[in-house]
Design brief:
One of its GO terms (cellular component) is extracellular region. Keywords: Secreted, Signal. Pfam families: IL17. The protein has 113 residues and is α+β, with helices and mostly antiparallel strands. It has 2 helices and 8 strands, in the order H-E-H-E-E-E-E-E-E-E. The strands form 3 sheets. The protein has a 3-stranded antiparallel sheet, with no helix packed on it.
Length: 113
């Protein structure tokens, strides 16, 4: 019984302290030779923070151009984000509910239609 009480208290302290932490959305600074910069379809990575979601922080990719190939515009190649659906928990009316979110994980070149 004491283990259960300890676990509940520990989770409560963790939850309250986690909710009190500042939650900021930031863009990651990457090196010039990073694959996200040297790819045919370059991208930036932004860490999106949401205090009412678990996990609180998730990375999201933004393509630098919708129709480019290494920064050069092209009528034959378009850059498109690769989307992944991630299971998350959302705080709703003081309880955690399973949900899903679509996040971009990379950018890839595709032939223009």
């Amino acid at each position: 019984m004491s283990n259960i009480i300890f676990a509940v208290i520990t989770f409560s302290v963790f939850f309250v302290s986690t909710m009190a932490l500042p939650c900021q959305t930031t863009t990651l600074q990457l090196h010039d030779n990073d694959i996200s910069r040297t790819s045919l379809c370059p991208w930036t990575v932004t860490t999106v923070c949401d205090r009412y979601r678990l996990p609180r922080r998730m990375n999201n990719v933004t393509c630098l151009a919708s129709n480019s190939c290494s920064g050069q515009t092209s009528a034959e190649i378009n850059c498109r984000p690769v989307v992944q659906v991630m299971p998350v928990k959302r705080l709703h009316n003081n309880s955690w509910i399973w949900s899903s979110e679509r996040i971009n994980v990379a950018c890839v070149p595709v032939l223009a239609c």
